[in-house]
Amino acid sequence: MLTKRKNLILFIVLCFFINTINVVAKSNERDDDKEWTVICYLAGDNFLDWFMKENMKELIKIGSSNRVNVIAFLDTTDNETKMFEVNKDDVIRIPTRIVNYSWLKSELNTGDPQTLINFATWAVRKYPAKKYFLILGGYGEGWTGLMHDMNDGQKNVDVLSLEEFEYALENITQSINAVNGKERIDILGLDACYMGMLEIMYQVKDYANYLISSQNEEALDGWPYDKLLEIIIANPEMDGSQLASKIVDSYIDSIKGNPSKMSNVLTLSVVDLKFVEELVREIDNLSLLLLQAQKENPRKMAFVERVTNRFLISAHIAGRYVPYSVLYDLSDFVENVKVGMTKNKKLSDSTQHLSELLSKVITKERHQELKGKYNLGIGGISLYFAGMDTEGYKENNFSIDTHWDEFITERASIGQKLNRKN
């Protein structure tokens, strides 16, 4: 009788022990089973205040799941920066001091790289996952910066420069590497105008696998964040390429109607950043060939210039003067050089190689069509061609490492001479 009682007690203890192990295992499984952490950095301390708040509502509409974390940073004009763990129809407010003890004031500056670093690295560590999706939403002004803050804490306007952005991404990827062993962000999303430039891609190429960005202006309300989260939550096993492609579709498909002029055409593309360095090397080679070709036949180059699709950056963004810039669609420019310079064997070979390379770099591109027109020739990557601050443009990494700035400077000089003759 005593032996049976001992066996029963041992059996009960064993069952309790096994059950405890299973509970801990399931708990650990839940922690380790997160496929994605989506980190949203919404810079709305400017004229986009209302739209950023609407984006936040879209995030809350869907929220996190048992496989997907959603974390949001929201800076608006109400002199208070807020951070949230986003759940369906609910949020958990995260005090700024928890993220960084030095943040005694709640008015933070989205144009300061340290703000992005502190928030994103904290989110990476606090919400570990197999894959990370970093989204920056706000104003963009192409090669001159993004994430405008009209009150940096001192009532001044600040902008995140490309150099500052690269510095922030370097720190964020180090945190990701410490969590899951990866050296890059799976997807970097720039929900801002004019950020689909090769100059930007070259600056961030070492810190993400895929970049989602627009060549032109974006809709004021940006991407449909609720639809974006629905896509991730429905199939969290998707890799970065698959997810990025679906996000492009969700954005373009959410837009109603077609514009009547090029400046209003909405675009979005996905770029595989591992090919960007090779692309830039070939652009450098093309630049050297174009420097010679335009001296030999300036009128043909003028023709190429006239027919190439272009996007224009406005002179004022978020209360800050931005130098007027002309951006060429790279794919269209390459195609027009190929057609306009058919007798130049070296140029023909270079443009042919570039066309093939662009088909690898750009994994997805979609845009609106103009009313009554088709086949606009929009490819997914833009490139600076002219503007009011060509000297300032020469200071970015792309210009330093290529002869493109020399080509466009020489092109402007030759163009002026042709205009005077005409």
Automatic annotation (TrEMBL):
Keywords: Hydrolase, Signal. Residues 1-25 form the signal peptide. Its EC number is 3.4.22.8. It holds the Pfam family Peptidase_C11. It is an enzyme of class 3 (hydrolase). One of its GO terms (molecular function) is cysteine-type endopeptidase activity. It comes from the Bacteria. The keyword Signal applies. This is Clostripain.
